[in-house]
Amino acid sequence: MLNNFTTGLQIGSILLALVGLYFVIRIWLKWGNIEMELLKARVFLNKKFLERNWIYVFLAGASLAVHQAVEVLVEFNIIVGTDLIYLVSGIFEFATLAFLVILAYEWFKVLHIVAGIKK
Fold it and tell me: Whose CB has fewer CB within 10 Å in the chain, the N or C terminal residue?
């Protein structure tokens, strides 16, 4: 049962990575056509947008830190590397990727709006 869930997390991580790659490529392609002053105004005058960005960055970093801590604890035999431990580590790895994809999506939305505004 745990192995199936772990495999599901791995497949989900691959799918999330592809979705994240899609958003990053779309952002990169739009970036050259963006009115920078308008983008700055949309981003830096929107306190809620900035707060969400910092929350996603913090949660991604915290999730990655927990994932890495679990891996180190197993590597140094401080905890036993059971299926459950690997599952917990995988969940935090998945969460890291999910928060980064959400962050990319938030930026994609803002750039999509800014790109649609004409001078």
Answer: C
Amino acid at 51: E
SS (H, E, C) the chain: CHHHHHHHHHHHHHHHHHHHHHHHHHHHHHHCCCCHHHHHHHHHCCHHHHHHHHHHHHHHHHHHHHHHHHHHHHHCCCCCCCHHHHHHHHHHHHHHHHHHHHHHHHHHHHHHHHHHCCC
Reference 94, options 22, 17, 42, 18; nearest CA is 17
Side chain identity, residue 111: L
pLDDT tens sequence across 66-78: 999 999 999 999 9
Answer yes or no: are the C-beta atoms of 41 and 117 closer than 8 Å: no
Residue 24's domain spans which residues?
Answer: 2-116
- The total of other beta-carbon atoms located within 10 Å of residue 17's CB is 13
Q: How many domains does the chain have?
A: 1
